[in-house]
């Protein structure tokens, strides 16, 4: 995996680089959008971390040009601004994720891995360890044994397997599964999670409770 870090703040670039090194992830860096475009013209990157507010050429304009060069490169937008307009503008350009400063470096690395993994997941199959999910037949097998899941339980497990090591808020889970947020649903999501855990058997502890946030799926070893 190779990542391009684009940010005019050297301190931010250095922090991200240190965490990429821990995971043995190769990287290049650029201090503005113009330099980023030049690097993309001569290199293939699995993921680009793109700041919005930069001199010479901002992140939005840089993404537009990068998409013309390689539309398949995954892009995570990084910005101190958190307005909904910024997020929507980024997603309209085709970015894959959006992280607001200040951010957790560990979470950023998890998001990089998640967006890159999406291309490696077969359209029909998602396989994490000994847990296998078939999106066409909507079946789940654990340790080569078929386990029956309801539609809601299936969608919950699929959401977790597509977001390994990423903490998902209850609102995010509810919106992803049911398509909208509804306060009453927040009080029942724990019950749905408990049922999924029970069906995972010895892997039930893979679903971690993140206090004050929601849940995340974590594979050890």
Description:
- The protein has 221 residues and is of the alpha/beta class.
- The chain has two domains: 2-120, 3-Layer(aba) Sandwich (Rossmann fold); 125-217, Winged helix-like DNA-binding domain superfamily/Winged helix DNA-binding domain (Arc Repressor Mutant, subunit A), CATH 1.10.10.
- 43% of the residues lie in helices and 23% in strands.
- The chain contains nine helices and twelve strands.
- The chain has a five-stranded parallel beta sheet with strand order 2-1-3-4-5, with helices on both faces.
- Helix 2 packs parallel to helix 3.
- The longest helix is centred in the middle third of the chain and has 16 residues, at 105-120.
- The mean pLDDT is 87.
Indicate the topology.
Blueprint: E1 2-6, H1 10-22, E2 26-30, H2 33-42, E3 47-51, H3 59-69, E4 74-79, H4 84-93, E5 97-100, H5 105-120, E6 125-128, E7 131-134, E8 139-142, E9 145-147, H6 151-161, E10 168-169, H7 170-178, H8 183-186, H9 189-200, E11 207-210, E12 214-217
Parallel strand pairs: 1-2, 1-3, 3-4, 4-5
Antiparallel strand pairs: 6-7, 7-8, 8-9, 10-12, 11-12
What characteristics describe this protein?
5-stranded parallel beta sheet; Arc Repressor Mutant, subunit A; alpha/beta; single chain; about 220 residues; Rossmann fold; 4-stranded antiparallel beta sheet
- What does the average pLDDT come to? 87
Number of helices: 9
**The CATH H-level homologous superfamily of the largest domain:** Response regulator
Q: Any idea of the CATH topology of the largest domain? A: Rossmann fold
Our estimate of the beta-strand percent is 15-25%
Give the structural class: alpha/beta
């Amino acid at each position: 995996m190779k990542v391009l870090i684009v940010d005019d703040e050297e301190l931010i670039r250095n922090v991200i680089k240190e965490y990429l090194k821990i995971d043995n992830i190769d990287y290049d860096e650029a201090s503005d959008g113009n330099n980023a475009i030049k690097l993309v013209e001569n290199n293939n990157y699995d993921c680009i971390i793109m700041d919005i507010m930069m001199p010479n050429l901002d992140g939005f304009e840089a993404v537009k040009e990068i998409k013309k060069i390689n539309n398949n490169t995954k892009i995570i937008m990084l910005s101190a601004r958190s307005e909904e307009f910024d997020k929507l503008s980024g997603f309209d350009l085709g970015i894959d994720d959006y992280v607001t400063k200040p951010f957790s470096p560990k979470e950023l690395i998890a998001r990089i891995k998640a967006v890159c993994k999406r291309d490696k997941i077969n359209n029909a199959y998602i396989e994490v360890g000994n847990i296998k999910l078939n999106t066409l037949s909507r079946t789940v097998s654990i340790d080569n044994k078929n386990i029956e899941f309801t539609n809601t339980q299936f969608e919950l497990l699929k959401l977790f397997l597509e977001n390994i090591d990423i903490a998902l808020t209850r609102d995010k889970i509810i919106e992803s599964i049911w398509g909208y947020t509804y306060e009453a649903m927040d009080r029942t999501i724990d019950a749905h999670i408990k049922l999924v855990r029970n069906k995972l058997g010895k892997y039930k502890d893979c679903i971690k409770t993140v206090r004050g946030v929601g849940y995340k799926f974590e594979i050890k070893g």
